């Protein structure tokens, strides 16, 4: 959904209130949400306003997706979201007044636009990409997969441990035992 600067009124544009919310579940279509396998927005809000040529984008989103468990690879549902506040300056010009470093100190994102308008999907892609959970586990107590036989240890107890070759710590223990 492309919004031209000239379409943004003085009081700001509530994008989804004026254009409808039907597009929200499709905003992330085409995005690679890795390491998630799927990801879509379930809620989104965006208020665009113009200040001396800069576009201010204030919004929030809630996304849901699926990720393989980092330990056992079983699919896990994830839900995440946040509020954001971004200043988009016309390409090639710095934000007016304060420098980008000062703006960052206020926890404000700074970006650019082509001077004509903004693609709403891109604004959300960027915010979602920054927030995608990178390590998801199905449970803090997930036992993972046996490296020897590939069995999911949450579901079956394999007997690999008893046949495993001694690890480096066992060797150290033996050496210590011999010295004492
Ligand atoms: Zn797991
Ligand atoms: Zn095993």
Short description:
The protein has 180 residues and is of the alpha+beta class. Helix content is 22%, strand content 32%. Strands 2-3-4-5-6 form a 5-stranded mixed β-sheet. Strands 1-7 form a two-stranded antiparallel ribbon.
Percent of residues in beta strands: 25-35%
Structural class: alpha+beta
Instruction: Work out the number of β strands.
Output: 7
Q: What is the CA-atom radius of gyration, in angstroms?
A: 25 Å
Characterize the biggest β-sheet.
Answer: 5 strands, mixed
Per DSSP, the total helix count is 5
Order of strands side by side in the largest beta sheet? 2-3-4-5-6
Helix proportion range? 10-25%
Q: What is the succession of H and E elements?
A: EEHEEEHEEHHH
Mean pLDDT: 86
The geometry reads as elongated
Task: Outline the structure in words.
The chain has 180 residues and is an alpha+beta fold. The protein has one domain (2-131). The chain has five helices and seven strands; from the N terminus they run ββαβββαββααα. The protein has helices spanning 15-19, 100-105, 120-131, 160-163, 168-179, and strands at residues 2-4, 13-14, 38-51, 54-68, 75-90, 109-113, 117-119. The strands form two sheets. A five-stranded mixed beta sheet has the order 2-3-4-5-6. A two-stranded antiparallel sheet has the order 1-7. A hairpin with a 2-residue loop joins strand 3 (38-51) and strand 4. The radius of gyration is 25 Å and the shape is elongated. It starts with a strand and ends with a helix. Residues 101-105 have low confidence and may be disordered. Residues 146, 148-149, 151, 158, 160 line the site of one zinc ion. The site of one zinc ion has 7 residues, from loops.
């Amino acid at each position: 959904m492309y919004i031209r600067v000239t379409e943004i009124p003085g009081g700001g544009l509530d994008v989804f209130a004026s254009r409808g919310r039907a597009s929200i579940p499709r905003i992330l279509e085409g995005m690679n949400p890795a390491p998630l396998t799927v990801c879509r927005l379930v809620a989104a809000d965006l208020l665009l306003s113009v200040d001396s040529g800069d576009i201010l984008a204030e919004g929030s989103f809630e996304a849901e997706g699926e990720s393989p468990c980092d330990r056992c690879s079983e699919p896990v549902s994830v839900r995440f979201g946040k509020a954001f506040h971004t200043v988009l300056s016309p390409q090639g010009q710095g934000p007016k007044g304060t420098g980008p470093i000062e703006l960052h100190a206020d926890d404000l994102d700074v970006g650019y636009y082509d001077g004509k308008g903004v693609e709403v999907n891109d604004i959300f892609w960027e915010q979602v990409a920054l927030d995608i959970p990178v390590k998801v586990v199905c449970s803090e107590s997930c036992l993972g997969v046996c490296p020897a036989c590939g069995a999911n240890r949450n579901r079956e107890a394999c007997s690999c441990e008893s046949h495993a070759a001694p690890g480096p710590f066992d060797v150290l223990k033996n050496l210590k035992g011999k010295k004492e």
